[in-house]
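User: quick one - fold this with zinc ion bound?
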Amino acid sequence: MPARSFASPHLYRQVPAPPLADNPQVRAALEWFAQNLASINDEQMRLTEIPAPSFQEGPRAAAVKSLLAAAGLSVQIDKTGNVIGELRGANEKEVVMISAHLDTVFPPGTDVKVRRDANRMSAPGISDNGTGLVALVAIARSLHEAHIKPERTILFAANVGEEGEGNLRGMRALVDSYRSRLKAVIALDGSGTEHVTTKALASRRLEVLITGPGGHSWSDFGMPNPINALVRGSVRFINTKVPTSPRTTFNLGQVEGGTSVNSIPYEARLKVDIRSESEDELVRLESALRECISAGVRDEMESARDRSKGKLDWKVDLLGSRPGGELGADSPLLAALRAADEFTGNQSRIERSSTDANIPLSVGIDAISIGAGGNGGGAHSLQEWYEPAGRELGLQRALLTLLGVSGLAQEKAR
Ligand SMILES: [Zn+2]
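Assistant: Sure. C-alpha cells for the protein plus zinc ion:
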C-alpha cells in the first residue's frame, strides 16, 4: 500500500498538539515499515521457528531481547520471564506499554518449521503470535530509525504466559511492577486490523475432583462411585439456564478418572471453562457448578447400597481466572486508536474477548488488544497461516495509536 497523504491535521483533534502526522520524524517512522517488509517477514519466520510453549518461552525471549536491544532500547528480562525494552520519554513518571505475548499453545516437540510460498507463511504460531511479536520489534525499530523521543516513557514488552494455563501471568507481573506509572497498554495479538478489543471477557477455569474408596465392579457393587457422582452432577449442571445477554457460556472440556472397566474408580475429574460478559453471571455460574456437584455426590451416596466401605469427597479448584473490565468510551487510548484508524483509512469494530488487556482493564488502566496487520487464520491449529499483504497498515495503525497515547517530547528530538 502506498503511503497515504499526511495533510489532514483535523484528524488529530483529540490528540494533544503537535499533530502527529505533521511531524517529519513520525512520517519517517510510518514510511519505515513499507521499506522493510521483506526483513519483517524474515524476522517473523525466525521467531516463529523458536518453540515457545507457555512456561518455556526462554529461548524465544532471548531472541526478542537482542532484537529490541538492536533497536536501541535498554532491555531486561524480569523474574517472570518477560522481556522489557525501555524507550525513555521526557516524562519518566508516566509510562505506556505496547506488548506482544511470546508463548504459543503448542506443546514441546511440535513441528514449527515455517513453510513459505509466494503470498503465505504457514506454521503453528505464525500469526498468534508471530505477527504481534515481529510488529513489536518493527515498531521499536521504526521509532529508533526516526529518532523519535516520546513524552511518556514507552515500554516494549514481550510477555510470557498469555495462553491457556499461563493464565496471563506475564501481564499480571508487568501490571504489578508498573501499576502506579502505567497510563495505557496496547496488546498486539495476531493479525488483522478489523477489530479492537476494549472489553475484557471474564472467565474462570475450574477443576472438579470427586474421590471415593474404589473397588471391584462385581464384588463391591453398590459402593458409591465417583464417576457416577460426576455424571449425576454434570447432568444437573448442563441443564443450568444461562442468559444470551449478557452472553454467558460454559464448556465441560476434559474428563479423566478410573483405572479399568471392571473397577469402581477411586477418582473422577472434570475441567470446566465458564465465561461471561457479566462478572455477576460468572459468580452465579460458578456457584451453580458447586451446588450441582454437591447434589450429584449426595444423589450417588443416597442411592449407594453399601455405604459401609466409605464415602465420597469432592472439591472444586480454581485453575485460572481472568477478570473482566471495560475501556471507557471517552478514554484517550480509544481516541488515539480511532484517530489512527481514520488516518490509515481503516474501519474497526469493538469486540469483547479474553486477552492480556483483561489485566490492566480489571484494575482501571486503559488497555486494548489489536491485531498487527496482514491476514491470518487457523490460530491454535497445526494449519495456522499468515499472509503479510497489507501488513504496513496494521503497523502504522499500532504506531500512531502508541504515539497518540505516549505523545512526542516537547523539545524537538535530536
Ligand atoms: Zn494470542
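One thing worth noting: Confidence is low (pLDDT under 50) at residues 1-17.
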